[in-house]
Amino acid sequence: MEGLHIRWVGLAFAVVGKCTSAQMESLAQRMRVLSHPVRLRSLAVLLRARGGLCVCELADVLELPQYTVSRHLKALAHAGWVAREHDGPWVYYSAVDSPLLEALRPNLSPTAEDEGRLRERLALRERGRCVVGPKDTGRA
């Protein structure tokens, strides 16, 4: 998206500058990935977490099965919204810094419930890293 300037205007984006058809298609594909509520919630929580979350932490915060969260994180990573980092048995995901994400940030925050669960889950970390694994909540 080199050379494009994207600005948040009301509830829409304004693309400033000349764009090629390929750039517009690329932007449309990236934005389409955000059309799923689980992906928006995941991105909002990752933005709030600063520094990344492991999949099990995010699954607990969202109260969703780990395989569901992993599938949505894979889509977000493929579209360039999140990056992942391996640390032993854990994979940590974090939001990728970008002008497009910065334009979204003021309009993308976790729900109060998600934010409360995030605080609780982060309190279980040791030296800033997950050591717990997923909660056994019986959800399938």
Strand-helix topology:
Elements: E1 5-9, E2 12-16, H1 21-33, H2 37-49, E3 53-54, H3 55-62, H4 66-78, E4 82-87, E5 90-95, H5 99-104, H6 112-122
Antiparallel strand pairs: 1-2, 3-5, 4-5
Helix pairs in contact: 2-4, 3-4, 3-6
How would you portray this structure in words?
The chain is of the alpha+beta class and 140 residues long. It has a domain of 87 residues: Orthogonal Bundle (Arc Repressor Mutant, subunit A), CATH 1.10.10.10. The chain contains six helices and five strands. The strands form two sheets. It has a three-stranded antiparallel sheet with strand order 3-5-4. Strands 1-2 form a two-stranded antiparallel sheet. A hairpin with a 2-residue loop joins strand 1 and strand 2. The chain is elongated.
